[in-house]
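Batch manifest, entry 17 of 40.
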Amino acid sequence: MNKDESIRFATKYLEDLLSFFGINVAVDSTVDDEVIQLAIPSTSMNSLLIGKEAQNLRALQHVVSMALTNHEAELTRVNVDVADYKRQRADRIAEQAEKWIREVRATGQTKILNLNAADRRIVHKVAQDYSDIETYSEGEGRDRQLYIKKIHLQD
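Output type: structure tokens
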């Protein structure tokens, strides 16, 4: 199935899945950088859909992505968001990243953080605006850590 069919399929699949649980909403869909973005509007079921540490949200993404893969869709990467939860979280992480960077710049001490992959990407992106700050990740799986380090610029 081509890109447009992939988007329509993912949207309908998620709407049908939600409907099975009694959540009848229209899912908004877009594509950003070859990732299908599916936005579920706010309902009384937000906390259930998001789950603890967004585990349910990730599970929804995985199920939709696997369905696309099984139907040989051109696009199989999916991002599901509920009531702008991920965007708001990303804003909070970016704000926190600015504080961490200010702290590293002031103290010169490398900061080591345990963050999930999405949060690490946000911090890496924020750090790109600072010529004297370097970020990198080390480790595997759940043990992967993000390092924020001050680099000394040469004159």
